[in-house]
Design goal:
Radius of gyration: 20 Å
Bound molecules: NADP nicotinamide-adenine-dinucleotide phosphate
Strand content: 25-35%
CATH topology of the largest domain: Rossmann fold
Number of domains: 2
Number of helices: 9
Number of strands: 16
Shape: globular
Distance between the termini: 20 Å
Length: about 350
């Protein structure tokens, strides 16, 4: 069902990817009014054929059977929530298939949050196809998607001048889902960590470059380039543990990443991301050196998994009101929590 056929009835959602984040999103959707999950897809053999209710840990069935591929979905709907991969190249055929079937797409794919810096060609193809099918495609989440980009952009609205932006996210990975703890290398030896990073077997956090690009785009500046420093392991001196992993002294409890948006040969935007099991302090900070100066700090940091589910779900009515095409968070009306009915009739498409 394209946006032209939209009415005030319930929003029909399909989930593509019922992993840790897809499940969190499903549980949140079930608490909301005006929205219904009508289909689910996951390629993991142990999930195919399962009822979605069981897959997300409910006692009752939801009457939605998880199918193994998008082509097997036999329902129509307004929005597909896509949570299968961090990488544009992998997400691309899935997004295309969903768009061709008339779904607006909201994805947690980090690279999709600003895909132009990964592949201009694939981005243009998604944009063209989305316009043809009268739907919008948005990549978002807590980060990239909010904390290190949208929130920064919003704060710059109070600035007359900006000399430098420094954003830092420091988190205790023990509070995060298993796939997150795995991708930051928790529990590995330093050698194993470097080997796995080198072989792309673990990725660390994906999206710092996208966050920088979204900010630069919103501020209407053309950066000389975006430079990401090599990912560094954090080695623990004392034993630390999570529900999934125990890290002995001398082993890797997490990682540290840094990226810079370069302007006139100097770092103009710097993003610092540190995630480790047992981090003593957790915070999200945004420092804008400008006129006026802004020093914002959220402590402890916002929980990434809960926050991602919220941003995805809260974006649904906004995305249904956006002009068709490939969009980024800077194109979207300022997001907020949706406390009432989800369905908002929007006669005029905004962004
Ligand atoms: N932007 C953000 O702020 C943000 C926040 C959180 C997560 N994310 C990203 O969102 C993605 C999902 O996270 P997660 O923790 O839920 O990962 P996950 O637990 O690995 O779940 C992904 C699920 O998708 C399935 N899948 C893979 N390819 C598929 C396909 N073509 N069709 C249908 N299902 C497919 C996987 O099955 P298999 O296991 O068989 O592959 C798995 O069950 C990750 O890339 C993560 O980095 C982004």
């Amino acid at each position: 069902m394209g946006r032209a056929e939209r009415s005030n009835s319930e929003i029909r959602v399909v989930l593509v990817g019922v992993g840790a984040i897809g499940r969190e999103i499903a549980r949140l959707l079930l608490k909301k009014r005006g929205v219904k999950i009508v289909g689910a897809v996951d390629s993991a053999p142990n999930k195919i054929g399962m009822d979605l209710g069981e897959a997300i840990g409910l006692k009752e069935k939801l009457g939605v059977t998880i199918c193994g591929s998008i082509s097997e979905l036999n329902v129509r709907g307004d929005v597909a929530i896509h949570a299968t991969t961090s990488f544009l190249e992998k997400a691309y055929p899935q997004i295309i298939e969903l768009v061709e079937r008339g779904f607006n797409v909201i994805s947690t794919c980090e690279e999709l949050s600003y895909p132009y810096i990964v592949s201009e060609e694939l981005s243009k193809k998604i944009d063209k196809l989305a316009k043809k099918h009268n739907v919008a495609v948005l990549g978002t989440g807590i980060n990239p998607g909010f904390l290190m980009d949208t929130l920064v952009i919003t704060l710059t609205a109070a600035c007359q001048e900006i000399k430098r932006i420094i954003v830092e996210r420091v988190i205790d990975a023990a509070k995060r889902r298993l796939p997150f703890q795995l991708k930051i290398g928790a529990g590995l030896s330093p050698d194993e960590f470097r080997e796995k990073i080198f072989r792309y077997e673990i990725t660390g956090h994906v999206g710092l470059k996208q966050s920088i690009a979204i900010i630069a785009d919103a501020l209407n500046i053309k950066l000389d380039g975006i430079y990401e420093e090599p990912i560094e392991p954090i080695i623990t001196e004392k034993e630390v543990k999570s529900a999934f992993v125990t890290v002995k002294p001398g082993f890797v409890s997490g990682l540290s990443q840094k990226a810079h948006g370069i302007l006139d040969g100097e770092p103009f935007i710097t993003l610092i991301f540190r995630a480790q099991i047992g981090a003593q302090k957790e915070y999200d900070s945004i420092f804008i050196d400008g006129e006026p100066q802004i020093n914002e700090r959220i402590e402890p940091c916002i929980h990434g998994d809960a926050g991602t589910a919220a941003i995805i779900v809260n974006s649904i009515p906004r995305v249904l009101c956006m002009k068709p095409g490939l969009k980024t968070m800077k194109d979207m009306q300022i997001p907020s929590a949706i406390m009432g009915e989800m369905r908002k009739p929007c006669k005029n498409r905004d962004a």
